[in-house]
Amino acid sequence: MRRGAFFDAGGILYDRESSSDDYLRRLLRERGYPASLSSELESRRLALHRDASLGNIAPRAYWNSVLAMYGVPDADRAALEDLLDVFADAVIPDPEAREVLGELERRGFVVGVITDTIFPLERKMRWLRAVGVTDLLDVVSCSSALGVKKPDAAIYRDALARTSVEARDAVFVGHSAEELAGARAVGMTTIALHGDRGATADRAVERLSDLLRLDVLAISSP
Q: Is the dihedral of CA 22, 175, 180, 157 positive or negative?
């Protein structure tokens, strides 16, 4: 039996000083632009973000459209896009990530990442290298590469199929209520780490190292 431990990336293996949206609003306020959108424009932004997460829109094209929604003129957008691009690379690794993933590998688990991003897979791998875990990963299922995003069952099943792990033998570690629900729907055991309000999961932990004390991630009995 092959067992798998699959992780969300952002908010689990690494973080940033704030969300990209909060950072954008800070930039807008500093430059005297409105920092909020009407409900209609916010709905359009969310639809654009989904398209970007599916790999249908390049990141800079996405940000260009969003900046236009906020009323930023053409002449000012490129500089703000540059700042947003630099911010994306400013990941803060969880200092426990390498030790925990390495121990799970030692325990015989297949280890993988199931992640949504508006950036290409190559960019995501750059961030995971900054965390120091790429050599421990058996699979990275990425929304922008696959054209499907969580909580769609297809992205979880991609990771499972590529590692030959059955859903019943896999755990998914995440924070988003929607993404945890998607993992549970395909039959994976769910673990909430830094869980969002309203998130439900089979287990909940406060830090990565707590995972190593859970029965579902213990070394199998001989």
A: positive
